[in-house]
Protein: Taurine-pyruvate aminotransferase
Organism: Peteryoungia aggregata LMG 23059
Amino acid sequence: MNMVQQPNDIRDIIEADRAHVWHHLLQHKPLETNDPRIFVEGRGMRLWDATGREFLDALSGGVWTVNVGFGRVSIANAVRDQLVKLNYFANSAGSIAGAEFARKLISKMPGLTRVYYSNSGSEANEKVFKMVRQIAHRHHGGRKYKILYRERDYHGTTIGTLAAAGQPQRREQYGPMPPGFVEVPHCLEYRSQYGAIDNYGERAAEAIEEVILREGPDTIGLLCLEPVTAGGGVIVPPAGYWQKVGEICRKYDILLHIDEVVCGVGRTGMWFGYQNFGIEPDFVTMAKGVASGYAAISCTATTEKIFDLFKDDPEDPMSHFRDISTFGGCVAGPAAALENMRIIEDEGLLDNTLQMGARLIANLEDLSERHAVIGNVRGAGLFCGAELVADRQTKEPVPEKLVQAVIANCAAQGVLIGATNRSLHGLNNTLCLAPALIATEQDIDQITDAIGTALTTVFG
């Protein structure tokens, strides 16, 4: 029974929202006649909206963020206690929580030593781009300034990070993009660019080298990749890919940046997605799961070697990293992140993620045996995708409107799932699932049962 109490003035709240709130990623024209969705409470993996309806959230807060679930009193208390003691000072000075979380975080990331705080994934990635450009000017005569990014990857909403977006629809109407950003091919074997070959992973990595040689190795400063492509279709790089990528970066003295904004802090069953592949990055960025959405925080982690490049001449006012993130100085973020990490450790959520992720993949593969519209199932930990196709032989993508119909049907059943949308022309056809790391077998089964019912309803 739903015991969540709705505000007495909820109609007034709905009208205030309709009149004044500009929502993210939403066309507002339909809200002239339809009520906006307003959530009022969350517990564990459940949400309740303004009408009192209950939903099972298979998206960890809609954008893969609330890794430890809703209603964590201990995190709220940690934030409250920190704010009362010290809420903020610019990060040109330190804080106890900031130092403690940096030490804790770095203990999970062998080879990395330094943490730069900001407050969003876009900002964390932008910091890397700025660092690389400054390194190019101070140490490479300005030459190694180009930033490579991968087709179908995504790194943020700022103009700089959009310039590194391998999702054309996200870039549309925001150009011209700044120069110096160069795309390399994707690594989705299901949609191989090279036909059916045995060593697709190595071949996909070699395609990066081809771009480097075309552009000139002495012009390339950074290769920026997601460990698992997220919004571009939940793409796990195939065997051989990451080893070859590492070799290429070392060969041409190119810094490697792993964008863990989605995968970081447990999503794949490891602390970080790159740790599944034996990668040795120069930069790692993270945001969403760092504090599970209980406070705004993002981190740019790097090596002592990179850090030392910015302290070469204390008398030169242009030698240090001349950057600030205002709310990177809010101490609520590190305080929440410390408690978030304690919960993951104490409750064994990395192991649970591997176990429940295996169940989720197995359930999706079972659905694919009963629904020909599922062309490919893929994922890592509790981050999984099911690509929908009109024909398995041709792999013709299902139209985006039908994918959205599946999502709508699941929501009508009380289960919130997602999909690639408005990102890739003609390829917004992958259902995306990212349940909280606390998911149970019953939660996983409810999610996939809803998908099965939705597929039957939409496709027959």
About this structure: The first helix runs from residue 10 to 20. The chain has two domains: 10-66+348-459, 74-346.
